[in-house]
Amino acid sequence: MNAPTYNFAYLDEQTKRMIRRAILKAIAIPGYQVPFASREMPMPYGWGTGGVQVTAAILGPDDVLKVIDQGSDDTTNAISIRKFFGKTAGVATTTSTTDATVIQTRHRIPEASLHAGQVLVYQVPIPEPLRFLEPRETETRRMHALAEYGLMHVKLYEDIARFGHIATAYAYPVKVNARYLMDPSPTPKFDNPKMDNCAALQLFGAGREKRIYAIPPYTTVVSLDFEDHPFTRYRFDAPCALCGADNSYLDEIVTDDKGGRMFVCSDTDFCEQRQAAGHHGTESAAPHKEKAHV
Amino acid sequence: MYVAVKGGERAIENAHRLLAHERRGDRDVPEVTLAQISEQLALGVDRVMTEGSLYDRELAALAIKQARGDMIEAIFLVRAFRATLPRFGATEPVNTGAMQVRRRISSTFKDVPGGQILGPTFDYTHRLLDPQLAEGFVPEQPMTADASQAATPRVTDILGRDGLIESSPQADSDAAVGDLTREPLSFPADRDLRLQNLARGDEGFLLALGYSTQRGYGRNHPFAGEIRFGEVEVEFSAEDVGFAVPLGSIELTECQMVNQFKGSTTEAPCFTRGYGLAFGQSERKTMSMALVDRALRARELGEEAEAPAQDEEFVMSHSDNVQSTGFVEHLKLPHYVDFQSELGLLRKLRQEFAEANEAVEMQEAAE
Ligand SMILES: [Zn+2]
Questions:
Q1: Three-class SS of residue B331?
Q2: In this structure, are B56 and B155 located in the same domain?
Q3: Interface touch A74/B186, C-beta < 8 Å
Q4: Considering only CB atoms, which chain B residues are within 8 Å of A234?
Q5: Across the interface, do B330 and A74 touch by the CB < 8 Å criterion?
Q6: What is the number of structural domains in chain A?
Q7: Any domain includes A289
Q8: pTM of the model
Q9: For A36-74, what is each residue's pLDDT tens digit?
Q10: What is the ipTM of this complex?
Q11: Assigned domain for B270 exists
């Protein structure tokens, strides 16, 4: 039986070149979805195969990789992907947002500002922002070509008519470089402003849907809105119970079945850095190392 | 005092260790071997090879064992391995007309050159559980006879000689072979890519779609012109050798459906084709594939395309069970960041709703 052997960062060099070509095209046309010949990866479609392929294609031996899911380095799928690259590429890994050169993420943008030279790789389930308004790819590609985005504005307007607000809480659509309508992946809309004029390169990989798109550094990214209904961020109005931060996105933790709730930073690195710097909240504990919930 | 959830890494390791234990089952029960799976669960192996797009019985058997008999998981394992293999080129088209036939039936003619050969089939068995099979049953040796020297031409070729069925389009032999695992699919897709998509597609999905055409959702009046199963030679033309080199033989099932005729004032009416091909003995798969292939030709044949089975983008985007299962099962991953954002919005809307209702009640009370 053939014992499988794998290349650096798993993918063969030919595949990496194919993906890099797609990435370069994506950077050249900010927000445009570039079709690419997505491979079957050893993790399931929908579990980050697009992000993993982008990361595999750009990773070099000197890179320092951070992987987060829901803002946390310690969620199971983040661990699984980090271990995958630890094993197949042998690169250094970190939980520090500042130290990382490549950050692969699912559903969050780190709280700490990214700096020039960093790459943020998003895992994307449905790259098409118009998909739930128009299921056919043939149609949505035509709409992008003609920059025909009225359908999305009508949807947002209907939200306002029905609910009094734009009823999109995550995967909130943006316009990139004043041209392409783009899905930011299912990040909470709280994170949308971080994409605008960002110093880091932002790459988006959708494996199952076979699309790559990008926001080059310092590109204008605008969340769709109306003059009388401007875009607003949402965060639960409370400080983090662990580090006291009042400007970070919070996870809601259900503490009992009697309505008990607490709110802590979703970005675990951000929260830990703050605690290490002496900030604390109402529930501050000793640095939480592996001591419970195993 | 709250302690954030940690230890995911150890949880994963322990879960995988437990999975390995459960996979083995009761350790007093002998371990199943790959040869046993390959020989005794052969149709399962055939399905994994077909939908996994890799002709390797041993690896397919390993995948079934590793997947604990979960066929889609096994197909996924084979696909992930296949994705890493280098490509040397494409083989010469296999000649199914020259197949070493082990089973061959036609429902359109009582007899055909080369004869009807029932072969190993569940057809006409009575589906009664057989307690003898529980253990130690030694079946009788099969009947044998001298191999027939008669040719077994394809039934559709026989029809084609009289022009009764549309001719099969001949591909340009110098044109590159389409491969949706190497190039991203776009619509409308050519028939070679459609057939590749269907060959890799989930048997259950194609079965349901094929069935739907029989029940009137895109009906195309099919006859099973021919189903044949057997061995064919695979040849590869290496450029530096200058001629086709035999690589070996593989088992295939081919189904050619003969469907409702087309015709116009300028074109004599003739039957139309639906085609199915799969590794091993995969009759249900190839029949379903042939029905759906024909349904997807609606546009090309100038038919109304209104039923799900005729909708190329719908069928091809949802036929792949590795893609489907990944995205359905990804709902198991944490979504609490998005859920929190949605929860915040919902609470706000509910609060505004309650406030608006209160205001109305107060106004009504005041009037
Ligand atoms: Zn915090």
A1: helix
A2: no
A3: no
A4: 341, 344-345
A5: no
A6: 2
A7: no
A8: 0.91
A9: 999 999 999 999 999 999 999 999 999 999 999 999 999
A10: 0.86
A11: yes
